[in-house]
Amino acid sequence: MITVDFKCLQLPAGSRILDIGCGSGRHVAAAYALEKAVVVGADANFDDLTKARSRLQYHDQLGAHGNGCWSLTASDINHLPFGDASFDLVICSEVLEHVDDHQSAMGEIVRVLKPGSPLVVSVPREWPEALCWRLSAEYRRLPGGHIRIYKADQLLRQVESHGVCHWHTHFAHALHTPFWWLKCLLGVQREDLWPVRLYHRFLVWDMMRKPRLTRAMERWLNPFMGKSVVLYFRKPVVAE
Question: What pTM was estimated for this model as a whole?
Fold first, then answer.
């Protein structure tokens, strides 16, 4: 389930890439496939980092990489352990909606980005997320869950206020949107119910097989009901 469109970024070989809030490593693994990429996954959750390590080790075993290298670190997004202008790309996917001091987090992800380099930020899209909140009070109260709903233009202005310029937006994961509505209706943690299990099996099948029909359906539906809004920024080069 890759949210970031790496093709539109056109990164040169050997790029240094940070995925902050990397979770189980989906974007770290995708970035590791780029030519000679130096990829860092950072997260505050040690269990997620363990899963990310297993995923990356599996990619090493398969040879499914671009002959670069990877590392993982336990990090707080509000206090990143990296120097200024350290990375050629920073990814912050489905993270800011969990963070109390999101303005400080935005400042940190821009600080560690090199001038002239891209930043990708994704969050749950406003109206599908609002419907989840309306359907289920449990969804809103999950430990470590979402504490705010962003309007895309509001988030865009907030991130730009830290010194980057927006240049592209798209929406992603439309087929996942009904899955979360279903979970909110039936019980967010009721994984045992057959409608939830059946839809989950469909999503896994779709991600693994990538059939043309469902890939086309998602492209058509993303502008209308994509679960995530994905914003692309660039840090300006300041002339000395």
Answer: 0.95
